[in-house]
Amino acid sequence: MGKMDNLQYPDEMGRFGSFGGRYVAETLMPPILELEAAYTEAKSDPAFISELDDFFTHYVGRPSPLYFAERLTNYIRTENNGNAAKIYFKRDELNHTGAHKINNCRGQILLAKRMGKTRIIAETGAGQHGVATATVAARFGLECIVYMGATDIVRQKPNVFRMRLLGAEVRAVHSGTATLKDAMNEALRDWVTNVGDTFYCIGTVAGPHPYPAMVRDFQAIIGREAKAQILEREGRLPDAVVACIGGGSNAMGLFHEFVPETSVRLIGVEAAGKGVKSGLHAASLTGGTPGVLHGNRTYLLQDEDGQIKDAHSISAGLDYPGIGPEHAYLHDIGRAEYVSATDDEALEAFQLCARLEGILPALEPSHAIPRTLDLAKEIGKDGLMIMNMCGRGDKDVFTIADALGEHISEGTDG
Amino acid sequence: MTHRIDTTFSTLKAQNKAAFVAYIMGGDPDRETSQTVLKALPDNGVDIIELGMPFTDPAADGPTIEEAGLRSLKAGTTLTTVLEMAKAFRHTNDTTPIIIMGYCNPVHHMGYENFAKAAKASGVDGAIIVDLPPEEDMDLRTAFEQQDLALIRLATPTTDDKRLPRVVQGTKGFVYYVSVAGITGKALGQQAAVSDAVSRIKKASGLPVVVGFGVKTPQQAKAIAKEADGVVVGSAIVKTLHEDGPEAALALVKSLADATHSA
User: Fold this and answer.
1) Which of A183, A295, B80, B128 could bridge to A208 as Cys pair (CB 3.0-4.6 Å)?
2) Are residues A167 and A283 in the same domain?
3) Is the pLDDT confidence value at A412 over 50?
4) Does A1 score more than 50 pLDDT?
């Protein structure tokens, strides 16, 4: 079984190959260097690790189960004359707050407390990272401000209300396309203005070094658990692991443990919106080119003049014109494969998963399902696959009802 | 070319004056108006011009500059358009330095060497790339050095003594001190702190130090001019141009320049 050597990345400049780095205004350089030093120290401190583990066990509810999606497997086997791989779901949607995001928030907020920061800021798209940040901030008594695009506030109303119930202040961002990238711009503006007491809790494996590596490390528990669980259940490694990608934190969390295991295919599924050819999509690797945004060099959706293009996806959590730099690197060296799924495919998969497995997936992992099914056929009946069910779909019911032409509540205009 | 910048500062120094540095967003609200304003800046007392190149996601700017950039983009401005504006300006002026100011991605997309060559050919003297700190600017700096262009660095209130040598090493022309930790167009930093920072940076860099971010009125410009080698005003000019038109903007420029020069 092949093993990859040379996993010494990012380098000391925060580079994954030619991607990553620290493209920030000078005002933010000292705080990100301070953060890097604090994180380097914390991650080798047994007290930090044990506090994190304790929280995962007793508050988040880890380990999340590895679940054999039997009826989905049977469905695809029936469709393909019995020839399709066995599909497992890594059930990170069962975490407290309903997504994988809390794994990272706890890590960062524990670090914030160590650094003496009292004010937590975050950006959010679907609201899952915002809810997770607000939850952990409430639990540890810290002030929390969440920036969210005005467009996303409309389509993710339940999460906006949840954040407010948790005591966070949700600030609407109206600039640009009023989605995740604009929320991130605004959070950076807040941070640059309040560097003294503020900790910026970034929700994905993007941003300036050390965020991509740090968020990956906090999310890597997904893959560590999944690997141990599949070895216990099946006695061998899977043939492929699959995850949806916006910025790419759940995918990096699942992939990280498997990167050195070259027999395991790593599959990332980007949001193709109305189709990559239509131009209305959020598939940065499939349809983008390298550039610099939000502190890192990575693949971006941009025009011929280097201006950032609007992303489009039915899923607010995937609606981002960039991707984490480590994914850009894994893409370029050919270690991971990146494919995409459209809005319509995700909607169809959502319904299929609900009826066959009794699980309402979030719109984000709904994108991973159709490609998981394709791959199950390709790999064949002796194969084993793990798909990260990284979030639950309760937050999306209004969007889905709207897309299906059903009216389920007064006052939903999203 | 760095010599236009050096000549400007030495000429002003001989007259015991601080430089007045004006920022406008290239192509805001459209190419023609912006070109007219650009051309008129030196006659209204501007010693150095910062010509903004628009970007969709200006995370270090406040709403005034952000909206100006979006207007400019909507009018069809590209990085090439901004360089063409500089080139057109050089037809009538060969002495006032032009510094291109903006974000990394459009420059990265054009290619650092291509940008350096195009900037040189357009009569540009230097650039400030806001999201390209010393840790990341080596490739552009090398390209600029080959063309004798100044890559100007920013120092900020968070740049402490330990970091300052890294920030000033390899910078040319002048150092831009951002008076306050924050975005463009907000409040000005405390005068005493600004004075202290300017002397620290001058000592470390041996270069002129200009101060910006938050300077809005002639009184503020005059006060800063007493402490620094130059005063930068951006948002106030951009805002006046947008709300009251070119004449009002140029009148503001003149009053700011006069105040700066009288300090």
Assistant:
1) A295
2) no
3) no
4) no
Q: Where is the domain boundary, A215, A242, A275? A: A215
Interchain pair B182, A192: CB under 8 A: yes
Fold for B2-262, please state it. TIM Barrel (3.20.20)
pLDDT of A3 > 60? The answer is no
For testing contact with chain A, the best of B105, B154, B176 (most A CBs within 10 A): B105
Does residue A411 have a pLDDT over 70?
Answer: no
Mutate to test the interface with B, among A188, A284, A305 (most CBs of B within 10 A): A305
The average pLDDT across A366-388 equals 98
A72 and A179 fall within a common domain: no
Q: Chain B closest CA to A114's CA: distance in Å?
A: 20
Looking at the 3D structure of chain A, how many domains does it have? 2
Max mean pLDDT among A166-180, A391-405, B22-36 falls in B22-36
**Cβ of B135 and A302 within 8 Å?**
no
Chain A CB contacts of B157 under 8 Å are 27
Share of chain A above pLDDT 70, in %: 97
Which amino acid, residue A11? Answer: D
Distance from CA of B250 to the nearest CA of A (A): 28
The angle formed by the CA atoms of residues A238, A241 and A245, to the nearest 5 degrees, is: 175
Same domain, A179 and A322: no
Considering only CA atoms, which of A112, A100, A106 is closest in space to residue A35?
Answer: A112
**What is the 8-class DSSP label of residue B55?**
-
Same domain, A186 and A267: no
The per-residue pLDDT for A413 is 47
- Cβ separation A26–B57 shorter than 8 A: no
The answer to whether residue A414 is domain-embedded is: no
**Contact present, B255 and B247 (Cβ < 8 Å):** no
| Cβ within 8 Å, pair A26-B182 | no
Residues A168 and A282 in one domain: no
Q: Which residues of B participate in catalysis according to the annotation?
A: 50, 61
- Nearest 5 degrees, angle CA B79-CA B83-CA B86? 145
Contact in structure between B39 and B246 (CB atoms under 8 Å) = no
Average pLDDT, chain B: 95
A40-69 residue pLDDT tens? 999 999 999 999 999 999 999 999 999 999
For chain B, 263 residues long, the average pLDDT of each consecutive 10-residue run is 89 97 98 98 98 96 94 98 98 98 98 98 98 96 97 94 92 92 79 90 96 93 96 97 98 98 93
Q: Report the relative pairing of strands A265-273 and A240-245 from DSSP bridges.
A: parallel
**Which domain covers residue A305, as residue numbers?**
64-98+220-403
CA distance A91 to A98: 10
